[in-house]
Amino acid sequence: LMIRRPPRSTQGVSSAASDVYKRQVPTLPRTISDFGGGTQIGNALRMFNTEWARRVRGRGPVVLLISDGWDRGTPEHLEQEIARLQRSCHRLVWPNPLLGSPDYLPLTRGMQAALRWVDDFLPVHNMASLKGLAQHLNQLPRHRSNHTSAVQSA
User: Fold this and answer.
1) DSSP characters for the chain?
2) Which of 97, 69, 96 is CA-nearest to residue 82?
3) 83 and 113 in contact (C-beta within 8 Å)?
């Protein structure tokens, strides 16, 4: 869900877009039960693992899990599901937009639980990092080596 605030210069001016914004945005926390509450990565991975992984597992996919890692669920649940996903894919790559910040450390409980199962932990915060991600993906080995821990690239 992406909601864009009208520019400040138009906040006093009535327009269709600003009227919708003023009317709808205050109701979002009442209508969306987990609005502003973080992501349930473990639950999303469980759904993927049970509904979709079997359909693509035979081809040894490279899985991109693009997230900032702020998980509202339990670290144990996230670790269980990410371990299951990692065992069923060729490579598990976690592009994280926060990783581009020089002050960022993956200290959330969810990231701590997940990182041991991630093959590559990469920044995706600007165009250069997206280009780096593409280059990284193009250079992946054809066969999986023994998994050790996440590799972080700048």
Assistant:
1) ----PPPGGGTTS--HHHHHHHHHGGGHHHHSTTTTS-B-HHHHHHHHHHHTHHHHGGG--EEE------B-S-HHHHHHHHHHHHHTSSEEEEEEGGGGSTT----SHHHHHHHTT-SEEEE-SSHHHHHHHHHHHHT--SSPPPP-S-EE--
2) 69
3) no
Tokens matching residue 148: 């050790």
Quote the tokens at residue 96.
């994280």
Q: How far is CA 5 from the centre of its chain?
A: 23
pTM: 0.71
- The pLDDT tens digits of the residues spanning 13-30 come to 555 655 665 666 666 666
C-alpha span between 131 and 126 (Å, rounded): 9
Token pair 């899990």 in the structure block, residue: 65
R_g of the chain computed on alpha carbons: 19
The tens digit of pLDDT for each residue in 78-130 reads 999 999 999 988 899 999 999 999 999 999 999 999 999 999 999 999 999 99
